From TrEMBL:
Gene3D superfamilies per UniProt: YVTN repeat-like/Quinoprotein amine dehydrogenase
Pfam families for the chain: WD40
Ranges that cross the membrane: 6-23
Name of the protein: WD repeat-containing protein 89
Keyword Ribosomal protein annotated: no
Species in which this protein is naturally found: Smutsornis africanus (Double-banded courser)
């Protein structure tokens, strides 16, 4: 690639030498022209390599079916300590439990149950790879320590009496937990706790630090802290709004940095772009919105792309696109990808650019029903997926799986669709 880049630069300079004279006339230095051409060639090559790598993902491991099959709703991997690789996978299941697996073998390790509360979402702590959290419909966020034999939560973060938590996240330095509630009467809350001391397994119940109560007026479906800046968090709701907050500010009004309207019920949110200065969301009716928050204080528009229905915008040859699962930002390629699929279990990888969406590749032969969750692991370029067939799959580039019988579909009526509320308002606003 290096040699090809240099040869390409030399060819351009020889064939189009008059262009270089024109560059000189505009007071641009001749010696920098080859560098610009070569850099562009490298950037294109990097993106192409990542897209080829994603398209080459194959099943490496498949978890064994549990005695009580359930939908796999959310997945997270433990954060590697220094040079070590991540050791654990945690999965939030539709049977009100959290299951933990070995990261490399997908062997089942243990299960945590919170009956009668429903567990929503799963996250590992960043500083300790044995600490795992989940929000619960009983108005708590529970924390478990994989190192301990006990099935009891080692710490419980309690909300207010009417709180039913359906989303949450833990910030980059493990200092703050934030959970989003269902709407009760007229109230919807973002609730915050001080998470310090949790890695010491202090068995106690913690009360909230406070709440944000004015920025959403319906169920808060997703919360996502910034990958680098621990004080930034984005929230999405069935009210169609995607809000970015700086929680270092003294009050909610000052904390609200921007409000973007997706025009529909938000199903997924994430950060993207260099230094993660962009946010994006997906909606329950398969729409996609992408904004550049760095443009808030300029006259430039913040909307990078708005697709009303991704199913109509992406051409899938000899197949179809039925739904979106989520998105992943690939740092090495500086590229945002979306993940979607079919009811038969095929997974579509979709490249995202300001000029639109395009299919990168399709992963077949894994799941036999709708894929509900995924987790991208950048260090080894692998992908974990979970579905309504109760299967947890590990995909790696050009992997070869030992022959295993494909599991039958367990598809049942989905409760997610009951929560969809489409908004027709075309209002888009932002706060500077």
């Amino acid at each position: 690639d290096v040699i090809a880049g240099f040869l390409y630069a030399i060819l351009i300079l020889v064939v189009f030498h008059p262009v270089v004279d024109l560059i000189d006339n505009f007071n641009l230095t001749y010696k920098y022209a080859p560098l610009i051409i070569i850099r562009t060639a490298f950037e294109m090559t990097a993106v192409e390599k990542i897209e080829e790598q994603l398209a080459s993902l194959r099943i490496a491991k498949r978890s064994s079916l549990s005695e009580e099959p359930a939908y796999l709703l959310d997945i997270d991997v433990s954060k590697p300590a220094q040079s070590e690789s991540s050791r654990f996978v945690a999965v939030s299941c539709s049977n009100k439990s959290i299951r933990v697996y070995n990261r490399e073998t997908l062997n089942f390790l243990r299960e945590y149950s919170s009956h009668p509360g429903i567990l929503n979402g799963v996250r590992f702590a960043h500083a300790c790879d044995s600490i795992v959290f989940s929000a619960c419909s009983d108005g708590t966020v529970k924390c478990w320590d994989i190192r301990l034999a006990t099935q009891k939560a080692v710490q419980i973060f309690s909300g207010y009496p009417s709180n039913v938590f359906i989303s949450f996240d833990v910030n980059r330095n493990d200092l703050i937990i934030c959970a989003g509630t269902e709407k009760v009467e007229k109230d919807t809350f973002l609730v915050f706790w001080d998470a310090r001391g949790v890695t010491n397994c202090a068995c106690a119940t913690k009360e909230p630090l406070g709440v944000y109560s004015e920025s959403h007026n319906d169920d808060i479906t997703k919360i996502c802290f910034h990958p680098i800046e621990p004080n930034l968090v984005v929230s999405g709701s069935t009210d169609g709004l995607v809000n970015v907050f700086d929680i270092n500010k003294d009050n909610e009004d000052d904390a609200l940095m921007s409000t973007c309207n997706s025009d529909s019920s938000v199903s997924f949110i994430g950060w993207s772009g260099k230094d993660y200065k962009q946010v994006y969301c997906m909606t329950h009716d398969e729409g996609f919105c992408w904004w550049d928050i760095a443009q808030l204080d300029t006259e430039e528009p913040i909307t990078l792309l708005h697709v009303l229905d991704v199913r109509d915008a992406v051409c899938v040859e000899n197949d179809s696109l039925h739904y979106l699962v989520g998105g992943l930002y690939h740092e090495k390629a500086d590229k945002l990808f979306l993940i979607g699929g079919t009811s038969a279990g095929n997974i579509h990888l979709i490249g995202c650019g300001t000029d639109g969406l395009s299919l990168v590749g399709t992963l077949c032969g894994g799941h036999s029903a709708t894929v509900r969750s995924f987790c991208w692991n950048l260090p080894d370029e692998s992908l974990l997926t979970g579905g309504e067939d109760a299967q947890l799959l590990l995909w790696k580039p050009r992997a070869v799986e030992r022959s295993l019988a494909k599991k039958a579909s367990m598809k049942i009526a989905s409760s997610v669709q009951k929560r969809v509320r489409v908004h027709n308002s075309s209002l888009k606003s932002r706060k500077k």
